[in-house]
Amino acid sequence: MKKDTYIWSAVLLFIFYLFISGIPLVVYNAASTIISMVGGALAGIAIYYLIKSLKKNDEFSMFASLAPGFAAIIIGIIFVYNFLQKETRLLKNEGVITTAIITDGSSMESRRGGVYTIQVAFKNEKGVKLSKKTTIGENSYKKIGIGQEISIIYYPKNPAILTAILTEEDISNYIYSKSLKIDIKAIEKVHSMKHDEISSYLDPTSSLWSYTGDSDYGKGWENPTAGEIIYKNGDQIIYVKRNLSGIYKWKSDLRSNGFKQLKKEVTPTDNGDTFSVVTNTSYEKENAQVLIREVLENDLQTMILSYTTN
Questions:
Q1: pLDDT under 50 in the chain at which residues?
Q2: Hey, how many other C-beta atoms are within 10 angstroms of the C-beta on 55?
Q3: What pLDDT, on the 0 to 100 scale, is given for residue 113?
Q4: Same domain for 207 and 105
Q5: For residue 59, what pLDDT is reported?
Q6: Same domain flag for 218 and 261
Q7: Does residue 80 lie within any of the structural domains?
Q8: Do residue 86 and residue 111 come from a single domain?
Q9: pLDDT attached to residue 219
């Protein structure tokens, strides 16, 4: 291989490293379009000279002249996608959810689509009033209006990094990730809490879990989106999970937290129209007992977990 081939290969790798990992998200957020275009253009130039160093005949020259242009566009899109993914991960891990008021909005439309922007006013964790812009989808833009209150998630260290929570995908990406994932440690924690402490523990954002009041099973909290219910009645916690797909993770979680399986009973029932299987499995650890009741009916699985202490 020619010396030029090694040089341009190294240059291309450096460009990918710089624009995928080297540029801080805060810097990219300030000029995302320009940075992505520059990155794509630089990559295209590097690809052109790399191909030129490899070509061996005139037939290759046409490909060498056309490929970099296409590559620049594709690589620019890759850079944009990569930074958007980094922003999503940052907001998931360190973002703060709050409410904001829409104060303004604008759109730039064309045959191939458009860019829809809203201005939102909100207070950060320190109570400071802020006003920032964020882009949203066309469908969301048509459904909202100035003066409307919405949920947003922003990065505390740089509130310019924010996104509006308007769609089911937004809720899944950001609100669900902030909600507590129920496992045996969470069950034990709820067991040790007072009733007025449980709601804020289950869901600090108060967006998924809600207090349902007293019932025959005790005081209840429900997360209808995830199909979860928790009841607390004295020293007993009952946890119900509908449409369960990870029963083996629960059993593994119990074992890793010191619970030993004591007994397992499986009862199948066939009523003609419906077929169900009920499995009761008991576990024990020191002064705590767990009974898991799995109900499988027509391919839908529900788990009812009972946690008690002596």
A1: 57-60
A2: 13
A3: 66
A4: no
A5: 46
A6: yes
A7: yes
A8: no
A9: 94
Residue 33 lies in a domain: yes
3-state secondary structure 156-225: CCEEEEEEEECCHHHHHHHHHHHCCCCCHHHHHHHHHCCHHHHHHHHCCCCCCCEEEEEECCEEEEEECC
Residue 174 belongs to a domain: no
Q: Is residue 175 part of a domain?
A: no
Would you state the pLDDT for residue 250?
86
CATH label of the domain that carries residue 130: 2.40.50.140
Domain ranges, residue 112: 95-169
Number of structural domains the chain divides into: 3
pLDDT per position as a tens digit, 90-103: 787 788 888 899 99
Answer yes or no: do 10 and 49 share one domain.
yes
Out of 93, 109, 133, a domain closes at: 93
Q: How far apart are CA 260 and CA 78, in angstroms?
A: 49
Are 143 and 37 within one domain?
Answer: no
State residue 289's pLDDT score: 95
d(CA 24, CA 157): 13
